[in-house]
């Protein structure tokens, strides 16, 4: 189905509904950045707005209903939690177009011709991060006295976080089948101090490089890495860049970041929408092939990573894109299987 | 924690002290306010605001000291604001504290956004941190060095503040007045003490401690401010004060216990039990400790 | 009496306008249409039945949590377990309707009942520890809230998680278990009636039954209760059980009334709202209703302006915080001069009457 | 000695925030160097006037002249600077602080930043020596007997170089020897030039101590005269607005079967003042057994044993022959116990609750006041109104909070509740402390009536007049033991009891 025909003249109106608050350095901030990019690209031809709905879930539905009744052309929101709500509201507003990032409505039930879902294969990006971490250890770029295992610091034990974990573990194993991964969950996404403490505990017990996937909590890992002189891997956006100016010493310990280009995907959705080519009525899973996820290959990456490892990463990337490498996803994975995976790499 | 030998236990100690520091600082703040009869529920918000002020001012001035002072001043000012609500407007103490927490969470995020265009964190600001201290001779000694040297300056400050606050409360004229006001304001009034002035002072002092606790988070633990980074530590500090039975040393031991429980839950993450269950440890240990303590006290009383 | 109640009401209203004005007007002035912002904040919630419905939906758990707090505070227990009880009650309700095979008509009542019983433990355990060991209920309830959160998350992760869902959420709540909606075009559900009834029953309990009377005696003066020979421990415990059941039941009602699945990943905050509402209502169950509606009205008005104008949601939070302080400000609300000004009568004459009444009683 | 008044009240009126007119155009003067008594019924406005003088309350109209000069006394601090000290009717000590800390509170000696404890202790010792009032400066106030606390209160007032000392019912809690001791001290102080304002309900004391009396009635000045110029009957008439009724006569009661028996009872208590150290005692039906003793001789322990709030550590208590081991207050109350507690607001009622609730509490489960789980509010109210009328409780109405009542009126309401159950065993603990003559006489009649109807009464009192008026038999407690038992024969005088109470003699 296509919504292009429904377009009228005048500036288009795009709204991004945040089911939480901005400032998470993740889904929400990246979504808001996507709207900024749309505005930057189209200027006066578009009107954009970001609405923070807060953490009280009972407020989300009323907001969606209000917004759907207003004259927005494109309504964007993200995370799986919002799927049920779009699932209920969208069929009542067939004249509106919805973009659901990192969530899916039940297309099999029908009636979702105005919803475009896009999910990110963060497990593919994390696979590369796993190769990088294990590779740096294996080839001695990180000397053995720094530690023998790699780390993973998650915000909570939830599917979207574990999707990073499965890819990360598999990538690391592809380099070193016996690699050990210290895994911790903070139980919170905004406690940087706790994040630092968890990271320090991992570094103290033999972790040489850790991957944080915990929003603002995860940034604590960078402070820990700086303190103990070990390595960190960022997530979602380029964490080296955040501190490049303000704290170069800390930025210097971020080997790379695994980025998830939510902003790019929203901009792309808007481009397609304008052209009348937005593939509504179905879900698109985007990953390395679409450049939707990947590693930051500038900054420290350039100087730190040996050419051989760079090539190994590039090969894996090609393998994933051509399908010769399959990366397990945590979505749909039973808790038992996930536990088995975690147990198998415990230091 | 694969092997539980002495060495790994010792490396555990700095972690305990770090986790304990903000709870202890804020707990001492709660202590001063509660002994004066004006329990400060707003520590959480004061902590958050202190963390924010420290980062912003140190970034603006390039001075960690000034940033730290700003954290103290902002904490104290919020103590004065709470006192204004309670003493002048005569609003409910608890409700005003809750309101202050709400306002601090909203206000710091809003100000952060206005200053940096980012609601999440202050990464773009080059803020300063307060140093850790290496104690010259001690640092060299094997076990003692790890125990006593190399901690953050505010960790030392927090533990040194314990006898300070204790002596202040128990041995100084002001402390005597403060306790009298908290226990029996009418009597204090009759003795010619300006009850309101003492309570204002206590709330300001309480705010200053909370501000220091906040500064430890944003200028010690990490070097930036992030949204809601106090993460409930103010409430844990309230618990520490109650568990400490209103004394400075009691508050210190309670904070240490809470710190140990938290540090243990962090260290135990490695053993592979469900992380959710590990995360209950810091909350269940204090309850158990409270009951054990209460039972022992009851038994002692029964025997007497 | 009625006149002075009316006077306080007028003062409240005027104050609110002032507070909102102080924070909102400067923001509104910077926007293209300042009047529309104020208009939306004040009247918006009543223009659209759905928004009016939002007030009532939001007030429903606030009333019940406020009631739970009031019942426990009245018995003299500073138990903050309402937050955790609400969370755990919601979870246990969902777990029951998902895991226990029940006929359709029994799902909601059994679910809520089980939820209430399981969830109430967060209030009852601190109550027991206090009654039995004199361990501070403030501390233990505060701590158990968090313990309940993580235990709940564990249960979701290991027993209720819908693996097909992309988040840590339970399977969908069966439609048969959901509470019926009462008014078309809104989400107002049966739970609202339950909450109103609960407040009424709460008032009956506290002021018209022997058990409630005893609880208030214990709460207002434990020594007096001991003098009378009241069984203080069991009264204390009974109050925490009642409070816990109400709070946890409220969690279950909220889940079956407004949610599709169990999807809380942090404490939802309703317990704190309950404390605020109870303090506003001075622990009076009937006053809980206007107090909860009032807070929800502020919230909906704030949401509307945040949604429709460039007003940051944090500014709304600031307004709400200020309002809380102002509406309990005795210096303003009980200011005799102000009351006299608004009510238009002189308390001096009242005083004379009262004095006479006192002296009349002497003869 | 000059005749110019040191203090003059000029047209003082006071209306409290709740509208109570406590003082209405009161004017009189106090000459320096005298002991000046102020009398009046409960609620006459005595304490209010003194609080105004001490800066705790502000007058609504009128002014105070000190040495002929109008002064505004804005706070106790100002009063202290002007040389006015006050011993309050209700203690104003901080229980967890030591005696010395309480006394220096507000003007602490310092050494550097710290409190100079040695200097504080010395200051207390000096004061104690100067005024001959022995106290232990390091004792924590909470652990002190009431009499000792009273001494601390006085020392605290004197510690600020006072010229005028206000004593608001200082003897209410003292035994006769202690009262005599206090009066000695007060006379000494007057001799050094101190002016003393003395408030009491006891005419005997007023006459023994003061040289001038002012009487307040319902907030107005009812009379003002040198004591030499006025007889007791005239004062009583001024106080009550009418002549006093005939005094109660004791005797004529026939005691019956043993109702409550204690044999070899011991109680180990945390507070040494509450210890019981081997007591054998029987209270019979139809008698009033008076228990005398210096405050802190074990009275509290005895009462808590008899009311089921403590269990004996050794020995046994029997109630009509049945052992009561393990029975709590509720069970004992079902057996017919009633208790008029010494601390009326601490144990006797709830200040925040209404008169109805206070009056019916405890009886609320009776069929008269409840049906099923519900209370019958109407019946409760009617019943309370009857109690208010019968016990002449001065109050704004049955739904006023107890806090709106003066202590005396609160006590009447509490008594009404405790008598209402027609108890078989009544413990009356300081039933008339701080209560005016008329109200006290009324309560005495009730106790007497109860005994006459066959009730057993245990009267614990520090007021020896009361003890001698009411009791059939008397036991004297000292340090947790009974040191004397006697019939209350007509010749018995307070002086005979004194040595036993102070533990100087023993006859048991
Ligand atoms: N703080 C107050 N607020 C309102 N009314 C008060 C207050 N204090 C005293 N009153 C009232 O003022 C009147 C005078 O009280 P006051 O305490 O002066 O009496 P009093 O002569 O000292 O009585 P007593 O012999 O009982 O001590 C009483 O009716 C009392 O109820
Ligand atoms: N806020 C108030 N409203 C009404 N009455 C009050 C208030 N505060 C105190 N009172 C009453 O006023 C009196 C204060 O004076 P005071 O302390 O001399 O009385 P009291 O000793 O308790 O009474 P009594 O002499 O009858 O024992 C008390 O009786 C008290 O109950
Ligand atoms: Mg008085
Ligand atoms: Mg009195």
UniProtKB/TrEMBL annotation, chain B:
MF terms in GO: transmembrane transporter activity
Annotated TM spans: 6-31, 38-60, 66-86, 93-117, 153-170, 200-222, 277-294
Membrane-related topology note: Multi-pass membrane protein
InterPro entries: ABC_transp_permease (IPR001851)
Subcellular location: Cell membrane
Keyword tags: Cell membrane, Membrane, Transmembrane, Transmembrane helix
A GO cellular component entry from the record: plasma membrane
Superkingdom of origin: Bacteria
A Pfam match: BPD_transp_2
PANTHER family: GUANOSINE ABC TRANSPORTER PERMEASE PROTEIN NUPQ, SUGAR ABC TRANSPORTER INTEGRAL MEMBRANE PROTEIN-RELATED
Protein name: ABC transporter permease
Native source species: Kaistia nematophila
Lineage, highest ranks first: Bacteria, Pseudomonadati, Pseudomonadota, Alphaproteobacteria, Hyphomicrobiales
From TrEMBL, chain C:
Main location: membrane
Residues that span the membrane, as ranges: 54-73, 85-104, 110-129, 141-160, 188-208, 241-259, 271-295, 315-333
Membrane topology summary: Multi-pass membrane protein
Gene Ontology terms for molecular function: transmembrane transporter activity
InterPro entries to which the protein is assigned, alphabetical: ABC_transp_permease
Pfam families cross-referenced by the UniProt entry: BPD_transp_2
Location of the protein in the cell: Cell membrane
Domain of life: Bacteria
Protein name per UniProt: ABC transporter permease
UniProtKB/TrEMBL annotation, chain D:
InterPro entries: AAA+_ATPase, ABC_carbohydrate_import_ATPase, ABC_transporter-like_ATP-bd, P-loop_NTPase
Topology with respect to the bilayer: Peripheral membrane protein
PROSITE patterns, per the entry: ABC_TRANSPORTER_2
Gene3D superfamilies: P-loop containing nucleotide triphosphate hydrolases
Record keywords: ATP-binding, Cell membrane, Membrane, Nucleotide-binding, Repeat, Sugar transport, Translocase, Transport
Cell compartments where the protein resides: Cell membrane
Transport found in the keyword field: yes
Location (main, coarse): membrane
SUPFAM superfamilies: P-loop containing nucleoside triphosphate hydrolases
One term under GO cellular component: plasma membrane
PANTHER family for this protein: CARBOHYDRATE TRANSPORT ATP-BINDING PROTEIN MG119-RELATED, GUANOSINE IMPORT ATP-BINDING PROTEIN NUPO
Protein name per UniProt: ABC transporter ATP-binding protein
Lineage: Bacteria, Pseudomonadati, Pseudomonadota, Alphaproteobacteria, Hyphomicrobiales
């Amino acid at each position: 189905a296509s919504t292009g025909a429904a377009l009228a003249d005048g500036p288009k109106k795009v709204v991004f509904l945040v089911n939480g608050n901005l400032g998470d350095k993740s889904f929400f901030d990246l979504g808001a950045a996507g709207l900024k990019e749309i505005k930057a690209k189209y200027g006066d031809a578009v009107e954009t707005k970001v609405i923070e709905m807060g953490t009280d879930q009972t407020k989300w539905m009323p907001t969606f209903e209000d917004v759907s009744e207003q004259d927005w052309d494109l309504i964007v929101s993200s995370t799986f939690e919002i799927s049920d709500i779009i699932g209920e509201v969208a069929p009542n507003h067939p004249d509106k177009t919805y973009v659901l990032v990192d969530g899916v409505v039940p297309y099999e039930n029908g009636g979702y011709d105005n919803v475009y879902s896009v999910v990110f294969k963060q497990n593919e990006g994390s696979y590369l991060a796993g190769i990088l971490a294990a590779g740096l250890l294996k080839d001695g770029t990180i000397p053995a006295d720094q530690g023998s295992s790699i780390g993973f610091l998650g915000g909570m034990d939830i599917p979207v976080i574990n999707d990073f974990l499965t890819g990360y573990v598999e990538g690391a194993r592809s380099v070193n089948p016996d690699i050990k991964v210290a895994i911790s969950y903070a139980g919170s996404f905004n406690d940087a101090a706790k994040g630092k403490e968890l990271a320090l505990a991992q570094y103290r017990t033999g972790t040489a490089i850790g991957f944080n996937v915990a929003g603002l909590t995860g940034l604590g890992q960078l402070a820990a890495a700086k303190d103990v002189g070990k390595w960190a891997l960022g997530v979602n956006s380029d964490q080296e860049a955040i501190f490049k100016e303000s704290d170069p010493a800390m930025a210097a310990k971020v080997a790379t970041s695994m980025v998830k280009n939510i902003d790019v995907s929203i901009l792309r959705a808007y481009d397609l929408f304008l052209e009348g080519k937005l593939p509504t009525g179905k879900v698109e899973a985007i990953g390395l092939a679409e450049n939707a996820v990947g590693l930051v290959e500038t900054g420290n990456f350039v100087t730190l990573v040996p050419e051989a490892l760079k090539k190994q990463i590039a090969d894996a990337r090609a393998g994933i894109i051509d399908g010769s490498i399959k990366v397990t996803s945590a979505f749909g994975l039973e808790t038992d299987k996930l536990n088995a995976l975690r147990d198998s790499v415990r230091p | 924690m694969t092997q539980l030998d002495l060495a790994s236990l010792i490396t555990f100690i700095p972690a305990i002290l770090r986790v304990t520091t903000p709870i202890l600082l804020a707990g001492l703040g709660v202590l001063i306010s509660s002994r004066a009869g004006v329990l400060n529920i707003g520590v959480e918000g004061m902590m958050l605001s202190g963390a924010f002020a420290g980062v912003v001012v140190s970034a603006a001035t390039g001075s960690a000291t000034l940033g730290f002072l700003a954290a103290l001043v902002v904490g104290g000012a919020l103590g004065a604001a709470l006192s204004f609500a309670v003493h002048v407007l005569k609003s409910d103490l608890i409700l005003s504290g809750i309101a202050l927490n709400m306002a601090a969470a909203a206000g710091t995020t809003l100000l952060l956004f206005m200053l940096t265009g980012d609601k999440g964190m202050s990464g773009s600001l080059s803020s300063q941190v307060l140093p850790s201290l290496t104690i010259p001779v001690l640092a060299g000694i094997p076990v003692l060095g790890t125990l006593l040297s190399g901690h953050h300056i505010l960790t030392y400050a927090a533990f040194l503040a314990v006898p300070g606050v204790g002596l202040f409360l128990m041995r100084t004229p002001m402390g005597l007045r403060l306790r009298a006001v908290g226990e029996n304001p009418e009597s204090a009034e009759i003795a010619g003490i300006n009850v309101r002035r003492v309570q204002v002072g206590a709330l300001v002092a309480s705010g200053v401690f909370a501000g220091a606790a906040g500064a430890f988070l944003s200028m010690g633990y990490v070097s930036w401010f992030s949204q809601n980074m106090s993460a409930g530590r103010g409430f844990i500090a309230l618990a520490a004060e109650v568990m400490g039975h209103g004394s400075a040393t009691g508050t210190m031991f309670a904070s240490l216990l809470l710190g140990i429980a938290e540090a243990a839950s962090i260290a135990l993450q490695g053993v592979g039990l469900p992380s959710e269950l590990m995360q209950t440890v810091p909350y269940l240990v204090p309850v158990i400790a409270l009951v054990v303590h209460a039972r022992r006290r009851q038994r002692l009383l029964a025997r007497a | 009496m009625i006149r002075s109640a009316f006077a306080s009401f007028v003062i409240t209203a005027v104050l609110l306008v002032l507070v909102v004005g102080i924070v909102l007007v400067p923001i509104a002035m910077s926007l293209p249409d300042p009047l529309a912002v104020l208009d939306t904040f004040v009247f918006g919630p009543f223009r659209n039945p759905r928004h009016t419905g939002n007030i009532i939906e939001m007030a429903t758990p606030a009333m019940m949590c406020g009631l739970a707090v009031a019942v426990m505070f009245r018995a003299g227990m500073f138990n903050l377990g309402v937050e955790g009880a609400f969370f755990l009650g919601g979870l246990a309700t969902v777990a029951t309707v998902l895991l226990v095979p029940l006929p359709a008509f029994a799902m909601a009542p059994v679910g809520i009942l089980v939820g209430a019983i399981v969830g109430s433990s967060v209030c009852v355990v601190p109550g027991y520890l206090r009654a039995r060991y004199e361990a501070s209920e403030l501390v233990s309830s505060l701590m158990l809230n968090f313990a309940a959160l993580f235990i709940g998350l564990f249960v979701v992760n290991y027993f209720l998680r819908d693996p097909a869902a992309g988040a840590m959420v339970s399977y969908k709540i069966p439609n048969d278990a959901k509470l019926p909606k009462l008014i078309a075009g809104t989400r107002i559900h049966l739970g609202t009636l339950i909450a109103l009834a609960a407040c009424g029953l709460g008032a009956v309990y506290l002021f018209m039954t022997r058990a409630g009377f005893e609880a208030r005696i214990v709460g207002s003066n434990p020594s007096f209760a001991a003098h009378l020979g009241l069984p203080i421990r069991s009264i204390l415990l009974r109050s925490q059980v009642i409070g816990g059941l109400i709070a946890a039941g409220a969690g279950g009602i909220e889940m079956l009334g407004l949610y599709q699945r169990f999807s809380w990943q942090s404490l939802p905050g309703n317990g704190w709202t309950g404390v605020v509402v109870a303090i506003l209502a001075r622990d009076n169950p009937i006053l809980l209703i206007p107090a909860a509606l009032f807070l929800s009205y502020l919230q909906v008005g704030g949401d509307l302006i945040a949604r429709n104008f460039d007003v940051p949601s944090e500014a709304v939070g600031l307004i709400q915080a200020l309002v809380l302080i102002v509406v309990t400000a005795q210096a303003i609300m009980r200011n005799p001069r102000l009351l006299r000004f608004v009510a238009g009568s002189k308390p001096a004459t009242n005083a004379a009457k009262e004095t006479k009444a006192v002296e009349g009683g002497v003869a | 000695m000059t005749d110019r008044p040191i203090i003059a009240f000029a047209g003082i009126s006071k209306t409290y925030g709740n509208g109570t007119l406590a003082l209405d155009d009161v004017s009189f003067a106090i000459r320096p160097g005298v002991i000046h008594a102020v009398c009046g019924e409960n609620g006459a406005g005595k304490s209010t006037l003194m609080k105004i003088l001490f800066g705790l309350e502000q007058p609504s109209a009128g002014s105070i002249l000190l040495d002929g000069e109008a002064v505004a006394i804005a706070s106790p601090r100002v009063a202290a600077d002007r040389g006015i000290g006050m011993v309050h009717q209700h203690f104003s000590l901080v229980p967890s602080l030591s005696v010395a800390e309480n006394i220096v509170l507000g003007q602490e000696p310092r050494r550097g930043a710290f409190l100079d404890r040695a200097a504080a202790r010395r200051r207390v010792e000096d004061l104690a020596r100067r005024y001959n009032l022995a106290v232990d400066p390091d004792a924590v106030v909470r652990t002190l007997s009431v009499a000792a606390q009273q001494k601390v209160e006085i020392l605290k007032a004197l510690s600020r170089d006072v010229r005028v000392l206000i004593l608001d019912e200082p003897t209410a809690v003292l035994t006769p020897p202690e009262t005599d001791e206090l009066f000695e001290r007060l006379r000494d102080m007057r001799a050094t030039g101190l002016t003393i304002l003395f408030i009491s309900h006891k005419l005997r004391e007023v006459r023994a101590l003061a040289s001038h009396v002012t009487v307040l009635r319902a907030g107005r000045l009812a009379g003002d005269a040198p004591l030499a110029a006025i007889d007791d009957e005239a004062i009583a008439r001024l106080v009550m607005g009418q002549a006093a009724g005939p005094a109660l006569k004791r005797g004529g009661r026939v005691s019956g079967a043993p109702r409550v028996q204690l044999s070899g009872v011991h109680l180990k208590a945390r507070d040494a003042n509450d210890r019981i150290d081997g007591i054998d005692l029987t209270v019979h039906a139809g008698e009033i057994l008076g228990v005398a003793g210096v405050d802190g001789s074990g009275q509290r322990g005895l009462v808590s044993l008899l009311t089921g709030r403590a269990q004996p550590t050794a020995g046994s208590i029997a109630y009509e022959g049945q052992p009561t081991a393990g029975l709590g207050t509720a069970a004992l109350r079902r057996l017919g116990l009633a208790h008029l507690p010494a601390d009326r607001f601490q144990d006797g009622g709830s200040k925040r609750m209404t008169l109805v609730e206070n009056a019916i509490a405890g009886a609320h489960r009776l069929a008269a006041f409840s049906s099923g789980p519900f209370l019958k509010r109407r019946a409760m109210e009617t019943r309370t109104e009857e109690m208010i009328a019968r016990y002449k409780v001065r109050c704004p109405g049955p739904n006023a909070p107890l806090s709106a009542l003066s202590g005396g009126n609160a006590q009447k309401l509490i008594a009404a509740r405790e008598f209402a159950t027609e108890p078989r065993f009544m413990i009356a603990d300081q039933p008339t402390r701080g209560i005016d003559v008329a109200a006290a006489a009324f309560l005495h009649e009730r106790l007497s009536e109860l005994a006459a109807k066959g009730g057993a009464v245990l009267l614990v009192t520090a007021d020896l007049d009361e003890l001698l008026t009411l009791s059939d038999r008397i036991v004297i407690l000292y340090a947790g033991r009974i040191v004397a038992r006697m019939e209350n024969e007509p010749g018995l005088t307070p002086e005979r009891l004194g040595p036993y109470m102070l533990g100087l003699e023993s006859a048991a």
